[in-house]
């Protein structure tokens, strides 16, 4: 029996979360990173930290405590969204909206991140407000996507200051191998497996009459593209890391 299922007339928590992430961004911009030459970069990482790990905890709690979580996972991929699932979607949409504004204002030429955020918002918004089903599958992928968030943001912040602060350079060097490995496993192995399960479930027609074909097909395209780009990104970083290691050996 479903509890607190989707109700199109129910109030959304999105505005409250938008104000939360906007406040965190402004605190980072005007207070925490005000001494940086590019304080907006630190602020973007700050709201990412406020989103990533909390989103993993919230989504995990929801998936583990929802009654259908005891059933074989694929059977939940077309279930009605519960109120708790909708709240997690609102939380993530608020983060991606604020960070998208950050990129549009300060980094308008960073097309990959802008397209990524728009595509992510599209998937979450259609699930939350259009069809009202399928959040279980998206939250599973959200956990995988944000599992590396804390490590990635520490790595990114260290990268911003590696030329100015010796400690930041050392942290970056120390974090790189384990971060790349963790990221490779999550995005390169676990992500595709979860996407395959979704594709098999929706392709079987199990969501017919609940989630329109064009909706779940567009979800698969967006998620598959995101995974592909993520794999390319981490591969490029592995190549750069090995190149730096070889260069340092030659210098010695």
UniProtKB/TrEMBL annotation:
<keyword id="KW-1133">Transmembrane helix</keyword>
<keyword id="KW-0812">Transmembrane</keyword>
<feature type="transmembrane region" description="Helical">
    <location>
        <begin position="214"/>
        <end position="235"/>
    </location>
</feature>
<dbReference type="InterPro" id="IPR040327">
    <property type="entry name" value="At5g14285-like"/>
</dbReference>
<dbReference type="GO" id="GO:0016020">
    <property type="term" value="C:membrane"/>
</dbReference>
<dbReference type="Pfam" id="PF03798">
    <property type="entry name" value="TRAM_LAG1_CLN8"/>
</dbReference>
<feature type="transmembrane region" description="Helical">
    <location>
        <begin position="179"/>
        <end position="202"/>
    </location>
</feature>
<protein>
    <submittedName>
        <fullName>TLC domain-containing protein</fullName>
    </submittedName>
</protein>
<feature type="domain" description="TLC">
    <location>
        <begin position="37"/>
        <end position="245"/>
    </location>
</feature>
<dbReference type="InterPro" id="IPR006634">
    <property type="entry name" value="TLC-dom"/>
</dbReference>
<feature type="transmembrane region" description="Helical">
    <location>
        <begin position="137"/>
        <end position="158"/>
    </location>
</feature>
<feature type="transmembrane region" description="Helical">
    <location>
        <begin position="111"/>
        <end position="131"/>
    </location>
</feature>
<keyword id="KW-0472">Membrane</keyword>
<feature type="transmembrane region" description="Helical">
    <location>
        <begin position="12"/>
        <end position="33"/>
    </location>
</feature>
């Amino acid at each position: 029996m479903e509890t607190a299922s989707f109700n199109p007339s129910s109030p959304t928590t999105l505005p409250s979360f938008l104000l939360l992430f906007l406040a965190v961004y402004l605190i980072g911009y005007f207070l925490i990173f005000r001494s940086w030459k590019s304080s907006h970069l630190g602020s973007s990482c700050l709201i990412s930290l406020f989103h990533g790990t909390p989103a993993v905890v919230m989504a995990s709690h929801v998936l583990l405590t929802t009654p259908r979580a005891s059933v074989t996972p694929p059977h939940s991929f077309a279930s009605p969204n519960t109120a708790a699932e909708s709240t997690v979607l609102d939380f993530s949409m608020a983060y991606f909206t604020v960070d998208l504004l950050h990129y549009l204002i300060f980094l308008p030429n960073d097309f990959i991140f802008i397209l990524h955020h728009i595509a992510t918002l599209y998937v979450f918004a259609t699930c939350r407000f259009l069809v009202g089903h399928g959040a279980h599958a998206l939250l599973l992928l959200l956990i995988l996507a944000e599992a590396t968030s804390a490590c990635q943001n520490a790595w990114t912040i260290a990268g911003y200051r590696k030329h100015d602060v010796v400690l930041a350079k050392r942290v970056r060097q120390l974090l790189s191998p384990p971060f790349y490995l963790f990221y490779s496993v999550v995005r390169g192995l676990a992500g595709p497996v979860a996407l395959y399960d979704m594709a098999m479930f929706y392709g079987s027609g199990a969501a017919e009459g609940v989630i329109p074909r064009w909706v779940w097909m567009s979800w698969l395209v967006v998620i598959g593209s995101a995974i592909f780009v993520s794999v390319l990104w981490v591969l490029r970083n592995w190549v750069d890391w090995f190149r730096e290691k070889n260069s340092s050996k030659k210098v010695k």
